[in-house]
TrEMBL record:
Residues 715-725 have a biased composition (Basic and acidic residues). Keywords: Hydrolase, Lipid degradation, Lipid metabolism, Repeat. One of its GO terms (biological process) is intracellular signal transduction. Its EC number is 3.1.4.4. One of its GO terms (molecular function) is phospholipase D activity. SMART domains: PLDc. Residues 169-196, 616-643 form the PLD phosphodiesterase domain. This is phospholipase D.
C-alpha cells in the first residue's frame, strides 16, 4: 500500500471520528454560524423559504416519457460549448439516448460526452454512491467509465459510508439535473440510466426474431423490476430476463427542459454540491476543480446570491464559466438579446447538512402544502409513492396528506366542487410477490394508512367530518398489455435450422451494441425465464422473486463483435419466412389506436397467439402535481418522508406558473389557465384514463386502453390476467 493511500486512510478515520463525536462540526464555529445566519436570512425572504427567489421570463417545455426527454437531452448536450453539469441518482454510461441503437450508435451517452470533451467542453458529474450491500447501481463503474473518457470529464461520488464525517447509511442523492453552458437546464424524474427510456405506447414486447436490429431495449435496458431487479449493471450485456417470454415493465415519467434566468439558481445548487463534495473528499486532489458561481452580481447587486457566504472565495479559487442572464452579455445567437419566456419559475429543494453542508431546507414540502391550500378547483398528482400524515400521530412526519384533507373539508363545508386525482403505481417496483416480500408489504401498508386505513387516513378523516371522500378524491393506477411476437413453433424451427438459440442471438445483439470500446470481459450470461405462476402475486402458490431466479439459462458471451455479428445473422438465416407483416408490439392499441386489435396479423396458431399476450403494471415514476391547470410542481421528490423532510434524500423541484393564459371554463364558469401547463396536462395520463375526447368524470373506468383501477376504501385492488384477450 502506497504512502498516499495510508495517509488518505488516516485522514478518513479522523473525519469519521470527528463526525461521530460532533455531528454539528460544520455549524459550530463563529464563521460557520454567521454563514448559516446569512443563508437562513436569504431563505426567510423567499416564498416557501427556498434558497432561490421567483424568476420571471423563463421558457419551460414538458417531456412525457423517456423517448421525448432523452431525445431533447441529446440535443441539449450536443449544443454544449463550455460546460456540462450532471447530478444523477443513477447514471448508465452505455445508455442510448436515441433509439433504435442500430441507427444511433453515436448517441450513446458515453460516446456523446466523449465527443463533447474532445471539443473542449468541461464535464462535471456527481452520482450517488450507493450502499453496495443493498443496491446494484454500480456507481464505481459509472465513475470509472466516465473518468476514463477524457481529461475534461470529472465524475465524483458521494457520500462515503465508511471513513466519512457524515455517517450516511440510509439517505441518497436523488436529484436528476443537467445544465449546459449555464443556459439550459433539465429537471424531473428521469435518471439517465437503464430502464427509463420508453415511448408513449409503453410496449411490453421487444422481440424481433427475423431482424434483431429493430431492438429498442438492448442488454440491461430490457428489464422488469417486478420479476428481477437490475443485477451487475456494469455488465451491459447481462440481459437478465428473456425478451422471448417475459414482458418488460414499462416506465411512465415526466421531465422538464428550460431556458431563462432560473437556470442560474439550478447552477448555484450544483456548484454548492460540487464544492461541498470537493471539500469533503477531494480537497487534496488538484485535478478536481473548485467551481465559482457564474452570477454577475455587479450588474444585479440586489440579488440574494450577492450575499452568498462563499461567493468571493470560490471566485478566487474556482473555475468560472460564462453566464447569459445578468448584465449586457445576452445570447449571441439572438443578437445580444436574451430570450424572454412566459413562465414564472422558482427552484425548491430538500437538502441538509449531510447532503449539502447547510442547515435543513424543506422548501419542496412547503411548496406542496401551500399550493394545495391555494388550489381553487382541482389537484392532479402523479407520484411513485404516496406516504404522508394527516396529523401528528405515527412515525410519518410530512404534512401533505393533512393539507389535502383540510382543503377538501374546506370545499365540502362551503358546498363547492373540488376534485383530487392521484395516480400511483399498483405496487412498488420491486421483485417478489406481495405475501412473501416484507419490503413490498411495508410500503403498501404505509400507503394504505395514508389513503384509507388505520384510523387517521385521508378517507377516514374526511368521513369523520361528515363527507364522502370519493366525491372529492380518488386514487388510480395504470396497467397495460402487449403481444410478444414469438410463436413457439416458429422460434423452435429457427433454432433448429440455424443451430443458434434465440437467447444466444439476443445476447449477441447486445454485445454488438456495447461495442469493443465498452467491452468488459465475461464468459457466461444468465437469462431468466418465466415461472409457471408468474404474475400471480396474490396466489397461495406463487413463488417469491428469490425462487424465480432459479429458472435460468446460461449463454456464452461472444468474445468479439465479429463473432456476435455472425451469431445474429446465423440465427436470422434460420427463418423460413419473413414476418414483416406481424407487429412486434400491439401496445399502440392501448392508446385507442384507429386500427383494431383483432385485425393484427399473426403467423402462429391461435393458442400460440393467446400464450403470447402479457400484462404488466405501467410503473408510474413521475413526481408532479398540477394545480388548477395554472401551477405545477415537478422534480425528483416523492411523496414520502425521505424526499420531503429536508435532511433525508436530497431533492430538487421547480414550481412553474405560466403567464401565457388562455380562457376556458371550469365547473360551468369562465376560468383562465396557463397555456403550457394546460397543454401538458392534456397530453398526460388523463387521455389514457378517460379517453381523448371526454372530460374526466372521476369514475374508475376500464377502457380498451390502459386498464385503470381506483383503489377501494374497503378492499385491496384486484389483479387481472390476460388483459389483451
Amino acid at each position: 500500500m502506497s504512502f498516499l493511500r495510508i495517509k488518505e486512510g488516516l485522514w478518513r478515520t479522523k473525519a469519521e471520528l470527528r463526525g461521530f463525536f460532533n455531528p454539528n462540526h460544520r455549524h459550530d464555529d463563529p464563521e460557520e454560524i454567521e454563514h448559516d445566519r446569512i443563508r437562513e436570512e436569504i431563505r426567510q425572504s423567499h416564498r416557501f423559504q427556498s434558497f432561490a427567489d421567483i424568476r420571471d421570463n423563463n421558457t419551460v417545455k414538458w417531456h412525457i416519457d423517456g423517448h421525448d426527454y432523452f431525445w431533447a437531452l441529446s440535443e441539449i448536450l450536443d449544443s454544449a460549448k463550455e460546460c456540462i453539469f450532471i447530478l444523477d441518482w443513477w447514471l448508465s454510461p452505455e445508455m442510448y439516448l436515441r433509439r433504435p441503437p442500430a441507427d444511433n450508435q453515436e448517441w450513446r451517452l458515453d460516446r456523446l460526452l466523449h465527443r463533447k470533451a474532445e471539443q473542449g467542453v468541461k464535464i462535471y458529474v456527481i452520482v450517488y454512491k450507493e450502499v453496495t450491500q443493498t443496491m446494484t447501481l454500480s456507481s464505481r463503474h459509472t465513475k470509472n467509465a466516465l473518468n476514463e473518457l477524457h481529461e475534461n470529464v470529472m465524475c465524483l461520488r458521494h457520500p462515503d459510508h465508511i471513513g466519512s464525517d457524515s455517517a450516511v447509511q440510509f439517505w441518497s442523492h436523488h436529484e436528476k439535473v443537467v445544465v449546459v453552458d449555464n443556459k439550459r437546464a433539465c429537471i424531473g424524474g428521469l435518471d439517465a440510466c437503464f430502464g427509463r427510456w420508453d415511448t408513449h405506447n409503453h410496449p411490453l414486447s421487444d422481440c424481433h426474431p427475423t431482424d434483431f436490429s429493430r431492438t429498442l431495449f438492448p442488454g440491461q435496458d430490457y428489464n422488469n423490476a417486478r420479476v428481477l431487479d437490475f443485477q451487475q449493471v456494469d455488465h451491459y450485456v447481462n440481459t437478465q430476463i428473456s425478451s422471448l417470454e417475459i414482458g418488460r415493465m414499462p416506465w411512465h415519467d415526466v421531465h422538464m427542459t428550460l431556458i431563462g434566468p432560473v437556470v442560474l439558481d439550478i447552477v448555484q445548487h450544483f456548484i454548492e454540491r460540487w464544492n461541498e463534495v470537493k471539500l469533503r473528499k477531494y480537497k487534496k486532489r488538484p485535478n478536481v476543480d473548485w467551481l465559482a458561481l457564474p452570477h454577475n452580481v455587479e450588474a444585479e447587486p440586489e440579488q440574494p446570491v450577492s450575499r452568498h457566504p462563499h461567493l468571493e472565495r470560490w471566485r478566487e479559487i474556482g473555475r468560472q464559466f460564462k453566464q447569459y442572464w445578468q448584465g449586457e452579455e445576452g445570447f449571441p445567437e439572438h443578437g445580444g438579446r436574451t430570450p424572454s419566456g412566459t413562465c414564472r419559475v422558482q427552484v425548491v429543494r430538500s437538502v441538509g447538512d449531510w447532503s449539502h453542508g447547510v442547515l435543513t431546507e424543506d422548501s419542496v414540502q412547503q411548496a406542496y402544502i401551500q399550493l394545495i391550500r391555494e388550489a381553487q378547483h382541482f389537484i392532479y398528482i402523479e407520484n411513485q409513492f404516496f406516504i404522508s400524515n394527516t396529523g401528528n400521530v405515527g412515525p410519518v412526519k410530512n404534512q401533505i396528506a393533512k393539507a389535502l384533507v383540510e382543503r377538501i373539508i374546506e370545499a365540502a363545508n362551503s358546498g363547492k366542487k373540488f376534485k383530487v386525482i392521484v395516480i400511483i403505481p399498483e405496487v412498488p417496483g420491486f421483485a417478489g410477490n406481495i405475501k412473501n416480500e416484507n419490503g413490498l408489504k411495508t410500503i403498501m401498508a404505509a400507503q394504505y394508512r395514508t389513503i384509507n386505513r388505520g384510523g387517521h387516513s385521508i378517507y377516514e378523516q374526511i368521513r369523520r367530518a361528515g363527507f364522502e371522500p370519493r366525491d372529492y378524491i380518488r386514487f388510480y393506477h395504470l396497467r397495460t398489455y402487449d403481444r410478444i411476437n414469438s410463436p413457439a413453433s416458429f422460434i423452435k424451427e429457427m433454432e433448429q435450422n440455424s443451430g443458434v438459440t434465440y437467447h444466444e442471438a439476443q445476447i449477441a445483439q447486445a454485445r454488438l451494441w456495447i461495442g469493443d470500446d465498452g467491452y468488459w470481459h465475461q464468459e457466461k450470461v444468465k437469462i431468466q425465464g418465466p415461472q409457471p405462476d408468474f404474475g400471480m402475486e396474490l396466489s397461495e402458490t406463487a413463488t417469491t422473486g428469490k425462487d424465480a431466479q432459479k429458472v435460468v439459462e446460461e449463454v456464452d458471451f461472444p468474445p468479439s463483435s465479429q463473432v456476435a455479428t455472425a451469431t445474429v445473422k446465423k440465427f436470422e438465416s434460420g427463418a423460413t419466412r419473413g414476418d414483416r407483416g406481424v407487429a412486434d408490439s400491439v401496445a399502440q392499441h392501448t392508446l385507442r389506436d384507429k386500427t383494431n386489435l383483432k385485425d393484427e396479423k399473426w403467423y402462429g396458431t391461435e393458442q400460440e397467439e393467446r400464450d403470447s399476450y402479457v400484462s404488466e403494471i405501467l410503473y408510474v415514476h413521475s413526481k408532479v402535481m398540477i394545480i388548477d391547470d395554472r401551477r405545477v410542481i415537478m422534480g425528483s421528490a416523492n411523496i414520502n418522508d425521505r424526499s420531503q423532510k429536508g435532511d433525508g434524500d436530497s431533492e430538487i423541484a421547480l414550481v412553474v406558473e405560466d403567464q401565457d393564459e388562455i380562457e376556458s371554463r371550469m365547473n360551468g364558469q369562465k376560468a383562465v389557465y396557463g397555456h403550457a401547463i394546460c397543454c401538458y396536462s392534456a397530453t398526460q395520463t388523463l387521455p389514457r384514463t378517460f379517453g381523448p375526447h371526454s372530460a374526466p368524470k372521476l369514475r374508475p373506468r376500464q377502457t380498451h386502453s390502459h386498464i385503470v383501477y381506483a383503489s377501494s376504501a374497503d378492499s385491496e385492488p384486484k389483479r387481472t390476467r390476460d388483459q389483451g384477450r
